[in-house]
Task: inverse folding
């Protein structure tokens, strides 16, 4: 078994006993670095300090650093021991020792280990000042500085003069020549959370909470991309990605994490690869497929938080219901053209859920999605960023998180509005989470047992010949811009949803631009008892495409 060359200690360090670990009669050069706790930092008087570390990650990276030093400089033995816990003034905080055939290699390897530990090993310290104040500081890590720059002025601990044994001079030239021609190996990079850990509300304890968190993200598109970027960058321990779509060229103006060459690839695969590249310490779980009533409870179980990044209402309400059933918070967002809305549903706080605002799930197509209504790329980016922020507030226990309210964002006027979202009293008894998913399943079975909602025709005359009355549910300006070749009764979708009735004895074919709004409206009208209502598949534009006009 290989010796442990990097380790932590919660008790005082004894340099003499550490030096004996490096004793080797074949080595003539020995160098040691000792970092002590001093009584001041940046002009403030220090009383004592604390060191904390993510031990598993830190030891792994420390071992890599020492292995690199031995390989690069040809040294025989190297060790590094770092204190954790509370340290008094003058205590030895870090010790590095190297023994080699010659002093030059020992010098260089020791300095290399010191600098790389400073940059790459996740160790943090908390200053305790004489005036009673305290705070986590950047410890021995200086992100953004070249790897081998001199950071002596940044160290809280100062170095003790190196110790030397005499060195043997034989074969010195040959050994130096070999060392000179060693190929430099670029050291691996590790995540650096120091900027967020400098926040008093985060610190090492908060970072540990992020590391332990398990978050499911449903959807890896316009909302999901910024959510995944920020959560992976923050160091969330596990991210579960659920998405069944493949990337299309029309996605790229708002899903800027991906590339044109990626089109045709499942978004979940692409997103997982991007997460791993951004932060290899994140445990990424992938499900390529839609969240549905059959797999939802299994996929979302054992998570601390669910984030809805979808663009269809059926999945949003399903996520709402599953979050209630599983007893975990859900962060939901929707985007429509230049606007968006954000809501946090938290059953642990008995907050209002989607069904408190809309007892019956809004039908897909009633409000246009990005394909139907259009969207500017930054709009879902802003809403996804807000979702990531709310998610981090929840994991870290930060103040100011959304409660029983709906946040609406107007990105044209750059205004936000908080709308009170009161919890429905029925949710205390008649809205049991375990029954909500069953209601969704029953609704899906009921829809499946009905006649098909969508019909496809090559031309509208064929529909008329089969006895259907044509109803154009587009807005007047849409009809003026793209009129149908066959006359249809113009009834805007809003009027139908608001209660305008069609004679029950008729058979109706609803027409919109691409079929999404007509499909949602047909579902709603069937729920009201009008069974002979259908949607033209693909809408007016799909009809034109089939006829080869566009």
Result:
């Amino acid at each position: 078994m290989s010796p442990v060359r990097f380790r932590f200690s919660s008790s005082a360090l004894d340099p003499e006993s550490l030096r004996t670990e490096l004793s080797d009669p074949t080595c003539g050069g020995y160098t040691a670095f000792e970092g002590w706790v001093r009584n001041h930092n940046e002009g403030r008087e220090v009383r004592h300090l604390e060191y904390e570390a993510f031990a598993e990650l830190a030891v792994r990276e420390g071992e890599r650093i020492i292995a690199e030093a031995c390989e690069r400089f040809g040294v025989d033995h190297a060790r590094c021991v770092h204190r954790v816990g509370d340290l008094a003034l003058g205590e030895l905080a870090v010790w590095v020792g190297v023994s080699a055939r010659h002093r030059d290699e020992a010098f260089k390897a020791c300095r290399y280990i010191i600098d790389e530990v400073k940059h790459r090993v996740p160790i943090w310290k908390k200053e305790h000042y004489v005036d009673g104040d305290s705070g986590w500081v950047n410890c021995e890590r200086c992100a953004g500085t070249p790897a081998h720059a001199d950071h002596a002025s940044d160290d809280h601990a100062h170095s003790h003069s190196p110790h030397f044994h005499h060195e043997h001079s034989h074969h010195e030239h040959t050994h130096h020549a070999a060392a000179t021609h060693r190929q430099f190996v670029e050291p691996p990079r590790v995540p650096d959370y120091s900027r967020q850990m400098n926040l008093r509300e985060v610190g090492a304890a908060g970072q540990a909470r992020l590391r332990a968190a398990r978050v499911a993200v449903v959807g890896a598109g316009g909302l999901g991309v910024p959510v995944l970027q920020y959560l992976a960058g923050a160091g969330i321990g596990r991210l579960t990605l659920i998405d069944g779509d493949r990337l299309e060229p029309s996605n790229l103006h708002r899903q800027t994490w991906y590339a044109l060459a990626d089109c045709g690839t499942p978004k979940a695969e692409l997103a997982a690869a991007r997460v791993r590249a951004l932060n290899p310490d994140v445990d990424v779980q992938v499900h390529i497929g839609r969240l549905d009533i059959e797999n939802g409870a299994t996929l979302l179980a054992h998570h601390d938080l669910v984030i809805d990044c979808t663009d269809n209402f059926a999945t949003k309400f399903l996520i709402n219901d599953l979050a209630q059933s599983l007893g975990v918070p859900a962060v939901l967002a929707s985007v429509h053209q230049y606007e968006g809305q954000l809501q946090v549903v938290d059953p642990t706080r008995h907050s209002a859920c989607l069904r408190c605002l809309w007892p019956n799930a809004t039908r897909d197509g009633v409000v246009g999605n990005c394909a139907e209504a259009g969207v500017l790329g930054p709009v879902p980016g802003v809403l996804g960023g807000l979702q990531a922020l709310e998610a981090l507030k929840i994991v870290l226990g930060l103040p100011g998180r959304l409660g029983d309210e709906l946040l609406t964002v107007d990105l044209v006027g750059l205004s936000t509005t908080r709308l009170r979202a009161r919890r429905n009293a029925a949710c205390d008894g008649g809205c049991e989470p375990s029954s909500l998913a069953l209601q969704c399943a029953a609704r899906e079975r009921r829809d499946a047992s009905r006649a098909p909602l969508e019909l496809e025709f090559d031309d509208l005359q064929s529909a008329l010949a089969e006895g259907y009355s044509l109803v154009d549910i587009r807005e007047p300006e849409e009809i003026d811009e793209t009129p149908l070749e066959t006359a249809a009764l113009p009834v805007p979708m809003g009027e139908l949803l608001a209660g305008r009735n069609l004679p029950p004895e008729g058979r109706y074919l609803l027409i919109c631009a691409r079929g999404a709004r007509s499909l949602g409206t047909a579902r709603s009208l069937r729920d009201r008892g009008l069974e002979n209502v259908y949607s033209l598949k693909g809408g007016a534009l799909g009809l034109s495409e089939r006829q080869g006009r566009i």
Q: What stands out?
A: The two ends are 71 Å apart (CA to CA). Confidence is low (pLDDT under 50) at residues 139-185, 364-368, 429-438.
